Amino acid sequence: MVDNREYVLNQLSNAFFKNSITSYLYVKGFIEDFFQKKENNHERIVAGIEDAKKRGTKFGRKCMQKPHEFEKLKLEWKCGTLSSRNAAKQLGISQDTFLRWVKEDE
Predict the structure, then answer these.
(1) Residue 8: exposed, middle, or buried by beta-carbon count in 10 A (0-12, 13-18, 19+)?
(2) Residue in 67, 101, 68 with CA at minimum distance from that of residue 84
(3) d(CA 82, CA 45)
(4) Cα dihedral sign, 73-74-80-84
(5) Is the pTM of this model over 0.70?
(6) CA 45 to chain centre
(7) H or E segment at 105?
């Protein structure tokens, strides 16, 4: 992430506080505090994810189970009597998923 503290500070100072050093310092302190909290939060999240992975927590979506008809439709597709698009439609999945499952089985 690009650190744009000075840009934010200048934009806020120019917009709200014309030529006042006190208000400039106040806004600068506020922005520094905001970015520090943001960095700390990010570090906490990353550390939490690493700890969870060490404990064996699984992230992401669970894999879809292959229907029982998959093997029959795969054989028809390999014989050339059925297109991958039609096989996927019969299974209620996308064509890419059907082709990925075929590739995984090989």
Answers:
(1) middle
(2) 101
(3) 48
(4) positive
(5) no
(6) 14
(7) helix 95-105
Could you identify the residue written with the tokens 């939060």? 41
State both tokens at 66. 């292959």
The DSSP line for 17-74 is -TT-HHHHHHHHHHHHHHHHHHHHHHHHHHHHHHHHHHTT---SPPPPPPPTTHHHHH
Tens digit of pLDDT for each residue in 31-85?
Answer: 888 888 988 999 999 999 999 999 999 888 888 899 999 999 999 999 999 999 9
> What residue segments make up the domains of the chain, in order of their start?
5-54, 70-105
**Residue 2: what residue type?**
V
Tokens of 12: 């806020």
DSSP 8-state symbol, 1: -
- Contacts (Cβ under 8 Å, ≥6 apart) of 105: 74
